[in-house]
Amino acid sequence: PSINISLIRRSMRTVYLILMARQMGYAPEFVERSEQNISAARLWEMVAADSGIPRSINPSKDDAIFVSQSRTIRSLAHKGECVIVGRLANWILRDDPHVVRVFVGSGADEAARRVARQLGIGTDEAGRKAGRGNSGRAIHCRHYTGVRWAAPAAYDLMVNTDRMGIEGAVATIIGAVERSRKAAAATGPAR
Question: What are the tens digits of pLDDT across the range 46-63?
Fold first, then answer.
């Protein structure tokens, strides 16, 4: 199955890095260097090249990006196993029985400590940064889906890293994916 992970705090990307690295056979450091290095200009260039978005409807930049991302996410999930972080993939792939939708979260205090360590800033500033990011994610989700971002019904699994730590979250997610694989194997072909 494909794995979709929605992150409540940007610092939770550690879970994604570990999962992605394990799945791809790379070091987590390689994935971290590569995972968010596409510029906004390059992204817009890719969207402009997407012939599936009719210019006659004159979509906003955000709408065009969402349509293009949705198409790309569906294509990747259909090709085989992958890990997709965010981008409303849980909603985009909501009807795909071969997807495990995971929400990874933590409390605000722990998230602020992690962000502060990662960015070398104070915990107050880190907490504000995480809060702004999560607020933006919630608004984006509501706008494009009409659904609350962290709504439990939108996920197959919700993990709190305050309780189990990053490694515990990774083990829980991997266990859920393995159970999903076994269930899929028992019911027929994957795709």
Answer: 555 655 555 566 667 778
